[in-house]
Design goal:
By secondary structure, the protein is mainly beta. The protein has five helices and 41 strands. The N terminus is likely disordered.
């Protein structure tokens, strides 16, 4: 991480030494907000509002590119892998107030985005989100729009494409779209070793020497929606979607060295899933008066698919049957429903909001490898809250309280549990002037046990390990306290902060021996605590030519559970350089993923880098780039359990050379779009099979 730190220090020195004061580009002020020095950025008490500049729109051909060009400190946009994060945490994306996917963000036309609301301290209305980006979009009153994009790789079966069309007539808008992401037999291998420590004091060591492998990750989605907008009165939305995972599979082959044997074994370890997910959502917003609004959202989704694994260990060049042959196939038929209603009253500098939501999951899993055994799980959640916001000169405060009731029932055993969990939240902000702002935020949320964590059907992982869910685990609560200081100068915008996190009864994995089997199950642990320090600058080194951005974070963690007390300290962050002129845009990015201690394991995401050169011409956009031009791709985990010590590194042939082509067309007049205030969650669960 030292290169990132040196880069930030050098760039910060250059930017600060070259500063010259410039007048505000926006001069309007009112009682509720004031304008900071950064052009086209309005700092409000509860959010930062970014108005896209003409140059940002001209250099963007979709919502992801526009977000990158808004130059928001701490935001990391990675269009190649389809992610938006802030300080290592995922960002909740919303379009006109309604929760959206990365695929939906990609299909936004930059010309239709009027502003982007960056909410770093989300209220209880956002149900536990760490940060929120809300895109406010306008739609033509007549005519329509069409957008298309394709990004294939030259040297691998990898790419992404979409088509999207909108048609408008008066108060109505129809939209149809489709996207396809393909990853087909990309070369991959696994570097892996493990040590089993048995109860009698003996141990077994294994080390995998990779021979080969591949991964698939191909899915597509088609969707259609209808919007009815009667300005200042009524909004009605219907959205239909159908997503199919054609193939999500990893396969590793290796030669296994075993300390208890004179032979080397040949291992094939395969895991995957495929399935179909139709979904339906409805939205109704009614403005009772200029001060009062009621909004209701309904969502539903269904999952029809299968999850499978195959673990086969054989003796090379032998006619003997496999030493180990473990096959699992689970067929899921799962349903999810959610409804949410909010009431919002805004009066002067005060705002009161209250809401209630209900979510239901109905899961049915059939185990083909166990003679058709069936497992049913029912899960119900009710959440309600009330919250009050007040602006007092340079100060503002938000105070709220929510509560969640969770109930589980398992049909086959007629067992279950239920719990009440409070969800307090408070935010205090102070903005003494245009260059400085301070915020202190306390938030909380709940994590409910997943289908995989509660499924008591035994699943064999290898010749020693079995996975069995725990029906006694309960919903866990998490609490986070964050202090942020924002500094806004003509050549540098930055955020400094400290974040403290605690999850006193976190749901985590647990290992124990039983009848010479290593059981992988789950428990409500004794808790996770961490303390993090972060710095996220956005530096305009040479205005209109060169920008440097990124973040650097240091986090200290402590995790306690049955029989263990572990600690971990680690750096994470990213650095990005943007050089643009004459219509060209050169971007280089390096990412070191966050290291997470959870249970007795440290896991990390993708350590990666990329270079991309783009050029815009009229309605067209072209780019060429390389993923992982330097170094080695790494994603993996390390087990710290005294029972099972292991370390795994996933290596993927990600040195891909790709080209992107986009074409956008828009016609018609503009109007203010739908401002959806709530969104009920209804994501259907799915099972997991095998896998290390």
């Amino acid at each position: 991480m030292r290169p990132i730190a040196y880069l930030f220090l050098a760039a910060s020195s250059l930017a600060v030494s070259a500063q010259t004061e410039v007048p505000d580009s926006v001069s309007t002020k009112d009682l509720l907000e004031f304008v900071i020095d950064a052009p086209k950025v309005i700092h409000k008490a509860d959010m930062d509002v970014y108005h896209p500049s003409v140059s940002a729109i001209e250099h963007s051909k979709n919502g992801m590119e526009l977000l990158r060009n808004l130059q928001i400190p701490s935001i990391n946009v990675n269009d190649l892998v389809g992610s938006v994060s802030s300080l290592g945490e995922s960002v909740q994306i919303r379009i006109n107030g309604r929760q959206a996917t990365i695929d939906q963000l990609r299909t936004l036309l930059p010309e239709t985005v009027k502003r982007v609301e960056w909410i770093q301290n989300p209220s209880l209305r956002y149900a536990g989100a760490t940060t929120v980006l809300n895109f406010i979009v306008s739609n033509p009153t007549t005519g329509g729009s069409f957008s298309s994009h394709i990004r294939p790789a030259f040297n691998a079966g990898w790419g992404f494409s979409y088509l999207n069309a909108k048609f408008n007539s008066g108060k109505s808008q129809w939209e149809v779209g489709a996207n396809l992401k393909w990853t087909n037999r990309i070369k991959a291998h696994r570097e892996f070793y493990e040590t089993f420590n048995f109860p009698d004091g003996t141990s077994l060591k294994r080390e995998e020497n990779p021979i080969g492998g591949y991964l698939n990750n191909t899915y597509g989605r088609i969707g259609a929606s209808y919007n009815y907008i009667k300005p200042d009165t009524t909004v009605f939305v219907v959205d239909l979607g159908l997503r199919e995972t054609f193939s999500d599979k990893t396969c590793y082959t290796s030669e296994v060295w075993d300390s208890n044997s004179l032979l080397n074994y040949h291992l094939t370890d395969l895991n995957g899933n495929n399935g179909l997910t139709p979904s339906l959502s409805l939205y109704l917003q009614q403005n009772l008066t200029k001060e009062q609004t009621i909004a209701v959202s309904f969502n539903s989704s269904f999952y029809f698919g299968r999850t499978f694994s195959d673990y086969v260990m054989t003796i090379p060049d032998s006619q003997l049957p496999p030493m180990t042959d473990i096959y699992t196939n689970i067929n899921d038929r799962n349903q999810a429903y959610g409804i949410e209603a909010n009431y919002i009253l805004t009066r002067g500098m005060n705002r009161f909001s209250a809401g209630i939501s209900y979510n239901a999951n109905r899961n049915r899993s059939e185990y083909e490898n166990l003679g058709g055994s069936i497992f049913h799980q029912r899960q119900d959640k009710v959440y309600f809250y009330a919250e009050y916001f007040r602006r007092m000169g340079k100060w503002s405060a938000t105070v709220g309280m929510g509560a969640q009731y969770t109930d589980f029932l398992f049909k086959e055993t007629d067992e279950g549990n239920h719990s009440w969990n409070p969800r307090p939240q408070a935010t205090l902000t102070f903005t003494p002037n245009q260059k400085n702002n301070f915020s202190l935020n306390f938030t909380s949320w709940q994590s409910t046990p997943t289908l995989a964590e509660t499924n008591i059907v035994p699943q064999q992982i290898d010749d020693y390990q079995w996975r069995i869910g725990n029906q006694d685990i309960k919903t866990s609560s998490s609490y986070m306290l964050t202090f942020r200081y924002g500094l806004n100068l003509p050549r540098i915008n930055s955020i400094f902060g400290i974040r403290a996190y605690s999850s006193p009864n976190a749901i985590t994995p647990l290992f124990y021996w039983h009848d010479n089997r290593l059981i992988n199950t789950y428990e409500n642990s004794k808790g996770l605590q961490n303390l993090g320090f972060f710095f996220a600058p956005y530096i305009f080194v040479i205005p209109d030519w060169l920008n440097i951005s990124g973040y650097l974070q240091y986090r200290m963690e402590r995790m306690r559970g049955t029989g263990y007390d572990l600690r971990s300290n680690a750096f994470s962050g990213y650095a990005q350089i943007e050089l643009y002129h004459w219509g060209f845009w050169l971007t280089a990015q390096y990412v070191r993923a966050q290291r997470d201690l959870w249970g007795q394991k440290i896991s990390w995401g993708e350590d990666m880098n990329m270079i991309d050169l783009a050029y815009n011409w009229k309605r067209w956009s072209f780019s060429v780039g390389v993923m992982m031009p330097f170094g080695k791709y790494d994603m993996g985990s390390k087990s710290l359990s005294p029972i099972l010590e292991s370390e795994q590194h996933t290596r993927v042939n990600t040195r891909k050379v790709y080209i992107s082509i986009s074409w956008n067309l828009q016609w018609g007049r503009q109007k203010r779009g739908v401002n959806k205030l709530v969104n009920a969650n209804a994501d259907a669960d799915r099972s997991t099979a095998g896998g290390k």
